[in-house]
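User: I'm designing a mutation panel for Molybdopterin dehydrogenase and want to avoid disrupting the core. Could you give me a predicted structure to guide residue selection? Please restate the sequence first so the numbering is unambiguous.

Assistant: Good idea. Sequence first, for numbering, then the predicted structure tokens:
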Amino acid sequence: MNTIQAAGGLPPGLWQPLTVAEAWELKRNLGGAAVFTAGGTLLRTQWEAGTVPLPAQLISLEAVAELQGIRISGGQILAGSQVRLEACRSQKVSGLLAAASRTIGAPSIRRLATLGGNVASGIGDALPALLVKDAVLHWYGDAGYESVGLAEWLDARAGGATEGRLLTGVELQADEAVGEKPDAGERAVGFYRKIMRREAFVPSLAAAALTAVIREDGTLRAVRVAAGGGSSAARRLRGTEQELEGRGVDATLVRKLQTGVQEEWPAFADAFASAEYRRLAAANVLAAGLWELRRPEAEAGRKNVEGGRGTADEAG
């Protein structure tokens, strides 16, 4: 294996703080010469491709205990930023997070990659699942601890804002708190879908998620819709959500969903797929999932929260 070298032909220096405050102090002192890292799966790919220069200093977060573990309190999940994607896949309190995590990379990658790295990249495949769960990001910086909604942070990032703080954790709703707690006769539903050019070991074309509560009369409320994947920025599709809110699932509504996704999600074009194709793929997997929700749970034979991935051929 070739050793990745920083400018000057030397491997980067490695720092291993034990606390969040110590990690932040190192970053302040080292400035732009240093970056935070843990699993390093995305960073290494970028360094080897030459798209991002290798810094002179690396600040490893692996030994910072505060950034580890998954805790549940009052219907909320708080996952440390350094929780591995494999742990996110195997946890039992958020079906959507588990569904998204199991589609990211091979098992060997998931055992290294972290939830914080997937989020901080701004293009991680877990983001749509987190967006529909109203995720909140917790940060540490010069002002101490701060929190901001994931959707708000992504909007600011899309507007050109840069992030200088350290991500410490991701907070999201547990399954029993999807949207709002269902009343008698209602059911909470949700799904995550991902489309790739082939089954594994390639970047996604599109990833999408939807949650809602289905009333006894079949109409939807508390609708959340998000799309992302590949190198495209993830986004909550609020206009599309408004189109679905309070309406019953029928062919007309499914077409509104498809149109809304294609108009609202600013997908990214690359050598493998156009932005238009990515939008179509996301629209179609969301439409398919929504159509399935119209069937009673017993008839559908599915869990309330499900996930899966398919190839581009399955995207329609």
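For picking mutation sites, this is relevant: The chain has twelve helices and 13 strands. Residues 5 and 303 are 48 Å apart (CA to CA).
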